[in-house]
């Protein structure tokens, strides 16, 4: 079985994390998996280097990349010359590239599109883009339900939950103080952490900072980790009067350490698929609070393995953060243990096995 993963752009986030992890695991399981990506995507190249994945370059890192014929021409040649059984388009933009490329191919591999959020595509996008796919992978049952309700090719939808790397994200509470010292974080503070690239419309970090500002806690700190949080978090912290208690750290590669150095994880998203960052935090044993965006309600149970609020409810978020601060040691440990047990159901190994099952069905084994 020969599979091509197509991914556009550079940078790192939930989509890129999943592309990397699924590619890595498929290779480990004996799939001849290739990846087509941006010429300058050094981060993905370095991460995949130990796994001997075949890498192809098609996209130049220039403005209006989707309007450059040279990018499509290279992708056409990659697909034409490698006799792939399956092509996976891992984002809407990647799907744009693949759709145009398929117009110029006599032999068309089976096409799998991946939808990671419940945002319903437009009528034009639905019929000009996704109608050509053989299957559409969605990352949660909730996303599948939203798309089915909107008659978005229900017969093509396949639920394959995003997976997390449980070898990387696991609890080591005995290292907390040492980690805080190495990360220059105060040892005696209660630390909340959010991991998400700065996208107010999607991740709603402004509402999170507002909720945090409502806490009556002098020794609390909020860390925001993700692309551009170091650029924008401070202005919202100043707006809500907590500029000395909020730190935007920007993109970091040491997220497992930052999670283990913290006490609580908070997610304020308006839109999610499965929320991999939340599952990663649960895997490290954090007591977590999240809005019930996307498929989060499928695994986060309020008061059992974490805490949950409705999307956009700032006051409820502040109240739940107060509850978290006042948990006894026993209550914290009980919720933490349940969170870890929940996260174990979402291993990247399970995700890869589900992809292999889908690929076999598409290629008749």
UniProtKB/TrEMBL annotation:
InterPro entries (alphabetical): Glyco_trans_1 (IPR001296), Glyco_trans_4-like_N (IPR028098)
Superkingdom of the source species: Bacteria
Location of the Glycosyltransferase subfamily 4-like N-terminal domain: 12-168
CDD domains, per database record: GT4_PimA-like
Protein name: Glucosyl transferase I
Pfam families: Glyco_transf_4 (PF13439), Glycos_transf_1 (PF00534)
Zinc-finger keyword on record: no
């Amino acid at each position: 079985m020969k599979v091509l993963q197509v991914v556009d752009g550079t940078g790192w986030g939930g989509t890129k994390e999943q592309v990397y992890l699924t590619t890595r695991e498929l290779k480990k399981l004996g799939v001849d998996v290739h990846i087509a990506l941006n010429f300058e995507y050094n981060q993905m190249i370095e991460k995949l280097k130990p796994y001997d994945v075949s890498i192809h370059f098609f996209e130049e890192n220039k403005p209006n990349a989707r309007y450059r014929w040279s990018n499509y021409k290279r992708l056409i040649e990659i697909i034409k010359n490698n006799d792939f059984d399956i092509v996976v388009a891992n984002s809407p933009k990647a799907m744009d590239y693949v759709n145009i490329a398929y117009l110029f191919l006599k032999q068309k591999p089976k096409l799998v599109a991946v939808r990671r959020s419940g945002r319903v595509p437009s009528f034009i996008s639905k019929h000009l883009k996704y109608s050509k796919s053989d299957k559409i992978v969605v990352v949660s049952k909730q996303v599948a339900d939203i798309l089915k309700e909107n008659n978005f090719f229900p017969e093509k939808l396949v639920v394959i939950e995003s997976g997390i790397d449980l070898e990387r994200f696991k609890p080591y509470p005995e290292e907390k103080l040492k980690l805080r010292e190495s990360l220059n974080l105060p040892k005696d503070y209660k630390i909340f952490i959010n991991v998400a690239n700065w996208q107010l419309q999607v991740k709603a970090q402004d509402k999170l900072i507002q909720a945090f500002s409502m806490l009556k806690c002098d020794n609390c700190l909020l860390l925001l980790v993700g692309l551009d949080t170091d650029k924008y978090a401070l202005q919202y912290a100043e707006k809500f009067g907590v500029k000395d208690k909020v730190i935007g750290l920007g993109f970091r590669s040491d997220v497992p350490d930052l999670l283990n150095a913290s006490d609580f994880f908070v997610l304020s998203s308006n839109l999610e698929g499965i929320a991999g960052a939340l599952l990663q935090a649960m895997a490290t044993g954090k007591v977590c609070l999240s809005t019930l965006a996307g498929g989060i309600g499928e695994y986060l149970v309020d008061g059992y393995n974490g805490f949950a609020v409705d999307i956009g409810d700032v006051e409820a978020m502040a109240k739940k953060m107060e509850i978290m601060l006042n948990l006894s040691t026993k209550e914290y440990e009980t919720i933490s243990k349940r969170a870890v047990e929940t996260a174990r159901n979402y291993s990247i190994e399970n995700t890869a096995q589900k992809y292999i099952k889908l690929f076999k069905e598409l290629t008749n084994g």
